[in-house]
Amino acid sequence: MTLTKIIETLKTKLNASYILKSLEKAAGFSSESDNDSEIDDPGEIAKNIPYGSPARNFAKSPDSGNASKNVEVPLIKLTDVWKIYQMGEVEFAALKGINLEIYEGEFLVILGPSGSGKSTLMNLLGCLDMPSKGTVCLNSKDISELSESELTVVRGKMIGFIFQSFNLLPTLNTEENVLLPMEFQEENRQIARQKVSYLLDIVGLSNKKKNLPSQLSGGQRQRVAIARSLAVNPPIILADEPTGNLDSKTGDYILDFLDGLQKSEGKTIIIVTHDLELVKYATRIVYIRDGEIEKIETHPKNEQSMKNERGTKNEANLN
Ligand SMILES: Nc1ncnc2c1ncn2[C@@H]1O[C@H](COP(=O)(O)OP(=O)(O)OP(=O)(O)O)[C@@H](O)[C@H]1O
């Protein structure tokens, strides 16, 4: 299938003009040579991701209105959330009454020391676990009311996970690891392969397609994990210590890339970390300690640029 044909197919599927512009740019971009060149400005490159957000309205409640206009409705809402682990006779409350609203297009950094409950919170935000008490709503839908198969669909379409341990399958090569989420979504194989090729281009790993994870460096594995997390174009990216164990150059590259996704694609980025360095990217910072929210800070400059971006996008949508 030619690229023009693919664009035409996606045009009917995605129906959004700014995505088509990106696709056309991508057409030129993906034909570039196969090299593992470091990319100078990952934020700029993230602006050209050739996808739309078909999953954006998934599980949208009837009263949540038009998602593109209704930025007042939280994408994720936690109400008095507790997580209590049972160890024999002993109970341990890892989260104690968390209230948090996360909006579309935010770059949220959840900051806290070791053992404060960050990963526990991340698992709830990613629908990987259920609260012991309280509610977690995604697009106004209580996730505890979803069946296991509905949860699998939500996770597959709505959320891209980037874990510290990368979670790459050791027996699959780079290309196959990135392809995997699309196979679950029963994506057209040829289009899926085009997307994989494009994603590996943008993370600078075109010449590592056939390498197994054990044949990659830590930074390269992290980049495969990022490409895989973007494979089905989820509106939410959840990252657990995305720069842990990486050298500062690779770490900066990955953060600039995520920053670009948030700014230009309006993706909601949620990062949990104990690394204070990451707060410079945040629109809001949630400080967590001993299972409780200590304080929430807004980063006025980043928030303003998010609002400006939204304004431009809404104007573009109206034209
Ligand atoms: N399955 C479990 N059973 C019992 N206690 C648990 C379980 N998982 C986590 N905990 C406890 O809950 C608390 C929060 O753990 P969590 O992994 O969420 O912290 P964290 O902030 O992510 O820590 P780190 O930064 O070290 O990864 C810790 O005290 C931990 O020991």
Rg over C-alpha atoms, rounded to the nearest angstrom: 19 Å
**Number of DSSP helical runs:** 10
How would you classify the helix and strand content by structural class?
alpha/beta
Distance between the termini: 32 Å
CATH superfamily of the domain at 3-11 and 103-130 and 144-299: P-loop containing nucleotide triphosphate hydrolases
Could you give a short account of the major beta sheet? 6 strands, mixed
By DSSP, the count of extended strands is: 10
Named at the architecture level, the CATH assignment of the domain at 3-11 and 103-130 and 144-299 is 3-Layer(aba) Sandwich
Region (Disordered): 30-51, 298-319
Domain ABC transporter: 76-315
InterPro entries: AAA+_ATPase (IPR003593), ABC_transporter-like_ATP-bd (IPR003439), ABC_transporter-like_CS (IPR017871), ABC_transpr_LolD-like (IPR015854), MacB-like_ATP-bd (IPR017911), P-loop_NTPase (IPR027417)
Biased composition (Basic and acidic residues): 298-313
Which structural traits does this protein have?
single chain; 319 residues; alpha/beta; Rossmann fold; 6-stranded mixed β-sheet; 4-stranded antiparallel β-sheet; 10 helices; 39% helix; 21% strand; globular; disordered N terminus; disordered C terminus; binds adenosine-5'-triphosphate
